[in-house]
Design goal:
- The structure holds 2 protein chains of 2 kinds.
- Chain A is 33% helix and 33% strand.
- Chain A is built from 8 helices and 11 strands.
- In chain A, strands 3-2-1-4-5-11-10 form a 7-stranded mixed β-sheet, with helices on both faces. In chain A, strands 6-7-8-9 form a 4-stranded antiparallel β-sheet, with no helix packed on it.
- In chain A, helix 2 packs across helix 3.
- The N and C termini of chain A lie far apart (49 Å).
- Chain B has 2 domains: 20-170 and 232-272, Rossmann fold; 174-229.
- Chain B contains 9 helices and 14 strands.
- Chain B has helices at residues 19-26, 28-38, 42-55, 73-80, 92-105, 119-122, 145-158, 172-177, 234-243, and strands spanning 63-66, 84-89, 110-113, 130-135, 159-170, 182-187, 190-195, 197-199, 204-206, 208-215, 218-226, 229-230, 247-252, 266-272.
- Chain B has a 7-stranded mixed β-sheet, with helices on both faces.
- In chain B, strand 8 (197-199) and strand 9 (204-206) form a beta hairpin.
- The longest helix of chain B has 14 residues, at 42-55.
- The chains are: A alpha/beta, B alpha/beta.
- The interface between A and B is medium-sized, with 17 and 18 residues.
């Protein structure tokens, strides 16, 4: 790689425009994903119109749809760019009074919402594993402290066992604006960290002109590990699905969507 | 065996004896047969183990502990290579076979009867004496993560400064990749049928092992034992061993020190007892 890799903060802050593309790519599926989130939360007792904390919320793609369904949602994200974007959708979709947005760090989410109690918290789209496992535990513990006595939590991460079984070393994504993303993948078996290198190019005719390199490394969890991590943070895992179609978890499923309860 | 009043006997497994008792004590004759089959690879595996120890500077004639040792198939070869070997096992039938094997091979490893979970108590006065400790052929993960952690701590106490721990077990990620729900093996007239379920919530593999004697076209049932054990991915085992005080120095996909990949059937972890600074 010619350029030094950028850090996670660089990725979400300085290179936010590139990562924004990934978010907007995810936007189309967001409504059905939000419905699946609501279905899971209802299944475990969340009342209509209940309060949900979405941390981190990115451009608010789940938060906005949950607000449209009548929930009162608070979203937190580190990137002012994403929060701006989320505000744009909030106005466009008229959910103003049901969606609160805040710029802030997930690692201090407890301070950001000090004194608040939500009926549920959600942590979507592999938003854990970027630091060490102890940090993940403190994030989950803060979410625990921010929810009511019967509080629920949904954590959505990549399924390590699906990577073990099916991961390929290269992936390619084309964006509508002429950007092409190459993803180089490696799973480190001694640490269970997934190492991704993203090369962003702009298509010019048949050529690909290099724009930027980003490197992302995060810890990936198998189901039993995520359940154990939740337990250590005070939660009890009560349900899990392997997709937003609410299918059972197997090594064939890319996601681990675990519902945990405080009660 | 304790006599239980009928009211105390229910369907729950907690009242049954643990599968290790069933397989290694009650049906030792069956498992002895499987041990005998494994004998043919013992010499090569012992050389591989010696090569691992050599790589980290552990050479004969230092003291080696093999726990559990089964029928001592590695111990006799490691003794031939010049190590002073202690083998520990809790199954009298295995130890009896181990002593015969020593006579047959003209070697003299020490064999001690003791439960793996209390290995330190079984070897009083031996703290700090072993330059290498071996746990091979998937011989942990039978009870709980806590029992394994405690076992690795006991090994640590028994190890000499700079001593090595060699663990050889199933590579969980190979199971994830190529899980087979059924297994069939036969040794002469002994037929072994495994039905397995891999519980992703716990990372335990569970399921009955059925043993039969083949008689003409019939399979005559001998025993059904639910053999359940924990599968560790490399990063989990590394963390557990390190929580017990060890320093991981090598992770491999087999005793020949093959690189670890999700295709390798085995996971071999080598750790060292480093002096606290």
């Amino acid at each position: 790689m010619g350029e030094p890799p950028v850090s996670m903060d660089d990725l979400f802050l300085k290179h936010g425009d590139l990562f924004l593309k990934l978010h907007e790519q995810g936007l189309e599926q967001s409504e059905s994903e939000a419905k699946a989130i609501a279905t899971l939360l209802k299944r475990h007792g969340l009342a209509d119109g209940g309060t949900i904390l979405d941390a981190p919320c990115g451009i608010g793609r789940h938060a906005i749809h949950l607000a449209r369904m009548g929930y009162k949602v608070a979203g937190l994200d580190l990137s002012p760019l994403y929060i701006d974007r989320a505000n744009h959708y909030r106005q466009k979709l008229n959910v103003g009074d049901r969606l609160e947005l805040k710029v802030g760090d997930l690692r201090t989410v407890g301070t950001e919402f000090r004194g608040r109690r939500f009926d549920a918290a959600i942590n979507m789209w592999q938003s854990l594993g970027y630091w060490d496992e102890g940090t993940d535990e403190t994030i989950l513990r803060q979410l625990h402290d921010l929810t009511s006595e019967t509080g629920l939590l949904i954590v959505d991460v990549l399924n390590r066992d699906n990577l073990v079984k099916h991961m390929t070393s290269f992936g390619l994504t084309r964006f509508d604006d002429g950007t092409e993303q190459h993803e180089m993948r490696r799973l480190d078996y001694e640490t269970s960290r997934l190492d991704l290198i993203w090369e962003f190019y702009r298509r010019e005719g048949e050529d690909l002109k290099h724009r930027s390199t980003a490197r992302v490394r995060f810890r990936v969890y198998a189901l039993h590990e995520l359940r154990d991590l939740l337990r250590r943070a005070g939660w009890k895992a009560v349900d899990e699905v392997g997709s937003f179609a609410l299918e059972p978890v197997t090594a064939e499923k890319k996601r681990l969507i675990v519902v945990a309860s405080k009660a | 065996m304790a006599v239980l009043s009928p009211s105390l006997i229910d369907q729950s497994r907690s009242h049954e004896s643990h599968w290790t008792d069933q397989l290694f004590l009650d049906h030792a004759d069956i498992f002895l047969r499987i041990h005998e089959e494994a004998l043919e690879h013992a010499e090569e595996q012992s050389r591989q183990i010696a090569a691992i120890l050599e790589r980290w500077g552990v050479r004969p004639p230092v003291a080696v502990l093999d726990a559990p040792c089964g029928i001592g198939r590695h111990d006799v070869h490691l003794t031939k290579l010049g190590f002073r070997v202690t083998g520990l096992d809790f199954a009298p039938a295995f130890l009896e076979r181990a002593r015969r094997l020593a006579v047959e091979t003209g070697t003299d490893p020490e064999f001690v009867r003791g439960d793996l979970r209390t290995v330190r108590a079984a070897l009083p006065g031996r703290d700090g004496t072993y330059s290498a400790i071996l746990n091979v052929w998937t011989s942990f993960g039978y009870w709980s993560d806590d029992v394994d952690l405690d076992l690795f701590r006991q090994y640590y106490a028994l190890a000499a400064p700079g001593g090595l721990l060699v663990l050889d077990t199933v590579n969980r990620d190979m199971i994830v990749r190529s899980f087979r729900p059924h297994g069939y093996e036969e040794w002469g007239d002994l037929v072994h049928i495994e039905e397995r379920r891999f519980d992703l919530r716990t990372s335990w593999i569970v399921g009955p092992w059925r043993f039969f004697t083949r008689r003409d076209n019939d399979l005559i049932h001998r025993a059904t034992i639910s053999v359940d054990h924990r599968l560790y991915a490399a990063h989990e085992l590394k963390r557990l061993v390190e929580a017990a005080g060890w320093t991981t120095v090598g992770i491999f996909g087999g005793l020949a020190m093959e690189p670890l990949t999700p295709e390798q059937p085995r996971l071999v972890l080598v750790a060292r007892k480093d002096e606290p600074s």
